Amino acid sequence: MAFEWPKMYKADEWFEQQATEWVFDYVCEFYDVEDIEDLTEEQIEEIVQYRENDLNEYSPMQMGFSNIITQWEDAQYE
């Protein structure tokens, strides 16, 4: 029988959720805000620059940064 891993997507979802929570918590603490939506445009740009220039492109944390950036952008258009 060949190796298989049924429902691996559950592990993927867990990793993404964890990364997003860790990034959310760290960013909110760093900028002393209660929610990502409270960040200024300058602050979110700093985060984008960090993700693009300093964070390893293969880091699992990329998902977390992408998610909070998207959350911030979505809040700006509401």
Structural class by helix and strand composition? mainly alpha
Number of E-type strands: 0
Tell me the series of helices and strands, N- to C-terminal: HHH
Q: What is the count of helical runs?
A: 3
N-end to C-end Cα span: 51 Å
Write structural notes for this entry.
The chain has 78 residues and is mainly α. The protein has one domain (14-24, 31-76). Helices cover 68% and strands 0% of the residues. It is built from three helices and no strands. It is elongated and about 55 Å long.
Task: Give the SSE map.
Layout: H1 8-31, H2 41-53, H3 61-76
Helix pairs in contact: 1-3, 2-3
Gist?
This protein has 78 residues and is mostly helical. It is built from 3 helices and no strands.
Which properties best describe this structure?
78 residues, mainly alpha, 3 helices, 68% helix, elongated
